[in-house]
Structures are given as C-alpha cells and as structure tokens.
Amino acid sequence: MKPTPVLFIAAVLAACAANPPRNPADLCAIFREKTDWYAGAKQAQRRWGVPIPVQLAIINRESSFVEDARPPRYRLFGFIPLWHLSSAYGYGQVKDDTWDWYQARTHNDDADRDEFADVVDFIGWYVHQSHTQLGIAKHDAYRQYLAYHEGQGGYKRGTHANKVWLLKVARKVAADAGRYQRQLAGCRVGLERDLVEQ
Question: Would you indicate the residue range of the signal peptide (predicted)?
Fold first, then answer.
C-alpha cells in the first residue's frame, strides 16, 4: 500500500523538526527556523530569571542542539559498541539522576530530555539552583557552565579549578552567550511580534 501524500508530508515535517538548526551560531536564525523554541526559552526566562542567551549557550555546548544526543559508547576491541559512557541524554546532556531530581522538585513528571521547552526549563531551574546555593549570577554564563558541568557540589569543592580544558570550554560558552545576547537585541522585537501572531 502506497503512503498517502498527507502521511508523507507529516513524516517529512517530523524529520525536519528533529534536525538541529542550520546556523547554531546565530540566535535569531535559530528562532526563525525553530519557530516554537522562542516561546519555550522565554517561558523559562520568565519562570527562573535565566537569560535566553545563557540557556542556548549551554545547549549549544552540550549537544549542538541535537535532541537525542548521547555520549560515546564503550567499545570492545575498539569497534564493538557497548554501553554509553554515562546516562547523559538529550539537548542538555542531563544524567538520569539529575533529571529525576528536577522532575521531583518541579513536579514536572511528563518532561522529556529530548523536548526543547522541557530542557530550557530544566536549565533555568538548574541555573536558579546554582544561583541560590553558590551565589553565581544567573547571567554569568562562565561560572554557571562550570557549575552545570561539575554539579553544584563539585563546583563548591573546586573540582573545575585544575581542568584547563574545562575552563577553556566555559570561556567559549560565555563568548557564545555574549554573542547570542547581542544578536537577540537585534531581533527581539520581531520574535515578540511572531510570538503574538502564533
């Protein structure tokens, strides 16, 4: 039986929705391509006070906006794939136990790590926790990323201090957040208008 045109179009649209944005370096282009993402990011900002550019800079670093991203697998004899190196999954590369903690604390039991709106809400919540527990400003993408990567306990113990590679990555996240902030200033009015029209 041949698929109907409607089913074919639906399948194509579903496949497109799962693709990462074509230009991840441009926040305005991301939101123009992924038309429902701005609403989710804005809602997370309103709920947790975490700037949209910080949210997206963390996601860009963690998964390059790939919804079902996973860490590499252990490989037997160098080529037989076994289990993943950790349980990290989705846009935010969130581990199972951390996601369970978020769901329990926010009562958001239906949240999924491969849903953009859920992940920006998680990032908003996590950054808010780091702000409350560690005193890191919510707009401080550099220190917030270090706490995101190491966990609040690790950050407090200074586990990041001698990880030169991680400090370099955190500087890149901060640079991305700064660029996203400048870009957002130029397209926010249009995004708000599009949001009203949706």
Answer: 1-17
